């Protein structure tokens, strides 16, 4: 995943590979507002910084859940 200074935009078709999720899960993330697509000339793009923030959010959730188990 790129660092914070990158302004890389991903195509929708790249997200399953980048996030290692199914296309259905990617659609769910968009529908639930966890990922916000950017519409450029009629094509969807996703900001790499937003993807990093999403991963970090889920990382924090996992840490909290793990602390409850211990």
Supply database-style keywords:
3 strands, 3-stranded antiparallel β-sheet, single chain, 70 residues, 16% strand, alpha+beta
How many structural domains in the coordinates? 1
- Count of individual beta strands: 3
Main sheet strand line-up: 1-3-2
Helical coverage, percent range: 40-55%
- Spans where pLDDT lies below 50 across 5 or more residues: none
Run of helices and strands: EHHEEH
Q: Main β-sheet: number of strands, strand sense, barrel status?
A: 3 strands, antiparallel
| Radius of gyration, taken over Cα atoms and rounded to an integer in Å | 13 Å
Class per helix and strand makeup: alpha+beta
Can you offer a commentary on this structure?
The chain is an alpha+beta fold and 70 residues long. Helices cover 51% and strands 16% of the residues. It has one domain (9-69). The chain is built from 3 helices and 3 strands; from the N terminus they run βααββα. It has a 3-stranded antiparallel beta sheet. A hairpin with a 2-residue loop joins β2 (38-40) and β3. The model has no long low-confidence stretch (mean pLDDT 90).
């Amino acid at each position: 995943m790129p660092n914070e200074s990158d302004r890389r935009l991903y195509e929708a078709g790249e997200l399953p590979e980048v996030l290692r999720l199914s296309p259905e899960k990617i659609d769910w993330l968009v529908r639930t507002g966890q990922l916000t697509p950017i519409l450029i000339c009629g094509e969807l793009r996703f900001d790499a910084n937003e993807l990093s923030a999403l991963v970090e959010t889920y990382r924090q959730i996992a840490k909290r859940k793990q602390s409850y188990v211990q």
